[in-house]
Amino acid sequence: MLFRSQLDLYSLNLDARVHIGSIGTIGGTALHQRNQSLGMKHPVPNYSQFNLGAFAYAEQEIVADVRATAALRYDTRAMDIAERRRSDSARSIINEAVSRSFTVTQAAVGFVWKPTSDFSTSLNISSGWRAPVAAELFSVGRDEGEIQYRVGNSNLRPERARNIEFAARYHSAHLVGDLTFFRQEIADYIYAVPTGATKENVPEYVYTQNNALLSGEIGRAHV
């Protein structure tokens, strides 16, 4: 079965920041985004969204050979989803017009100890987030890129992450080595799972979320 599925995406980004001497930076970001489905089928509804963020970052030496960094960020997102109807003669409603909004505050703190010019260690602790996108919330239809029939979940919550990372680095003229340990806990991680059904001759997947944990270590060395 052939059909035309064309999606145009328009984005406008603004970014402003002010440096406060050698101490840190404050700033803000803004994003306006909208899409338009021009094809015969609309797997993703038309929508517009506005993101606004403000942040502050500071870096300072606290004792000899030890520097500390700290960051704070506030983000808010408002999304307006347009009503969408089926392309068949019944023209039944797939999703009604709806608005969603998400707000979160994130923080990070880090320390770097550099006792020599060749060797350093660092410790970083931070939080993060990701809001669900329109496709994860309201998609209904065949995803040609994945060869899947995707069904969104309008009840999805933002992902929230807590991260900790420790790294040791040795960089000299004769040897370069890095070793990093990391742990990331993600609450409400968003992913698609198969339902076991088939639609339009491809497997059906529906978006859901659950907690996830990523941890491990990364090392490298060369001369």
The percent range for strand residues is over 45%
Biggest pleated-sheet summary: 11 strands, mixed
Query: Can you write the helix and strand succession as a string?
Result: EEEEEEEEHEEEEE
In round numbers, the mean pLDDT is: 89
Stretches with pLDDT under 50, minimum 5 residues? none
Q: Please compute the radius of gyration using only Cα atoms.
A: 23 Å
Question: What report would you give on this structure?
Answer:
This protein has an eleven-stranded mixed beta sheet. A two-stranded antiparallel ribbon has the order 5-6. Helices cover 2% and strands 72% of the residues. The chain has 223 residues and is mostly beta strands. It is elongated. The longest helix has 5 residues, at 134-138. The mean pLDDT is 89.
Summarize the SSE layout with pairings.
Elements: E1 7-20, E2 24-37, E3 47-63, E4 66-81, E5 84-85, E6 93-95, E7 98-113, E8 119-130, H1 134-138, E9 140-143, E10 148-151, E11 159-171, E12 176-199, E13 202-222
Summarize the structure.
The protein is built from 1 helix and 13 strands; from the N terminus they run ββββββββαβββββ.
Keywords:
single chain; 223 residues; mainly beta; eleven-stranded mixed beta sheet; 1 helix; elongated
